[in-house]
Each structure stands twice: as structure tokens, then as C-alpha cells.
Amino acid sequence: GENVEQHPSTLSVQEGDSAVIKCTYSDSASNYFPWYKQELGKRPQLIIDIRSNVGEKKDQRIAVTLNKTAKHFSLHITETQPEDSAVYFCAATYNNAGNMLTFGGGTRLMVKP
Amino acid sequence: DSGVTQTPKHLITATGQRVTLRCSPRSGDLSVYWYQQSLDQGLQFLIQYYNGEERAKGNILERFSAQQFPDLHSELNLSSLELGDSALYFCASQGGPDTGELFFGEGSRLTVL
Which of B33, B42, B100 is facing A95, going by the closest CB pair? Predict the structure, then answer.
């Protein structure tokens, strides 16, 4: 089955700096890579996703890059703000009905004002 | 609001007891996942159902069981509860074939005293 590793487990940045979280996956058949944000005590919510037919996707201050050859993908947050502080989870799956989404271990991002 | 409903939101019980957590997926979603999240931990995958059948199993204890009913709601049964079972239990439903996105419920917080 799929195995997703995520680094770093914790990340502290100064407000305004950029943050990068990296994930690697094992199953070359995986073609859907979402990122979830979980604020303290709340449910995880999808913030951005990318499919294997593109190498990069941006949405305002967040972007995700995918390198299928190396089997890794990354989340980039620019101009970080205190409200970006949360736990971020990457995930991977072969996108077909009912296929399991495998999560990484999570990264706790702390943005210091 | 994700459209996924979990009950109860909070539950306090004693060691050795049994509880049932309930999840109603989004309308039309066939796949239901259960996750356990202990304090400051990642999302531990327990089990997945797809259209009433067990699809994938994670590190689910033998004291735990689940099922998905014909109306697609799911229940997670936790028995012989131990202190270490105290956690936030999330249910998530998965969108159709065009997306692998998971929609999480608000979670059921279980406290075992």
C-alpha cells in the first residue's frame, strides 16, 4: 500500500517569512495529492490539492509542487500570518472511487508575530 | 459545514465501558473513514467502508468494531474502554470518482476516566 512521509514534524517561522513542508510517497500509481489544515480542536479541512497531470498549483499565498519522478510534493506558504498556525497534513491516493487516502504524519506550523 | 454529521460531540465514560459513535456522511458519498487522533498526534486511520462493505483496515484494535448501514451512515463501537482510548474520533466521507477529497465531521471527543 501507499506510504506517505512528511517533514518537518514542527516548523516555526517569523510572520512574513515563507514556510515549506515536504512529503514523499511510495506508490507510483498515486495521482491525487491533497493538503489539509487542522486548527486546534477543529476538523481537518482541504486547503489545496494537485493532480499528477500538473507540476504546480497556486492559490493566493499557498502553492503546491509535485515531482512525480522523485515521488515528492511540497506545500509552500508565502507571507505567513499568525492565522496560518495549524497542523498541516499531506496525503496521497490513486484517485478512484473508494480508494483510501493515505496521510502523512503532520507538520505543526507556528507563525510568530 | 462539511455536511458530515457526527454524534455525540463529547462523551465521558469510565474504563471498561462501551460506547458507540455515529456518523452520517454527506449526501451521495459512499465511502466513510474513521480516524483516531490523540492529543498532539496525527490522524490514525482505523477503518474505511465503501457502500456498506469494509474496504481497508488500519491499526484498529480488536476491542473496536465498525459497520456501515444500507442508508450509508456508519457506527464505530468501542468496548472495554481504557484510559488510552481517550481521543478525538473523526469520521470523514469521500467525494465521488472525480475527487478524492475527504470531508471531515467535527469529531467526537471521547474521555475515558
Answer: B100
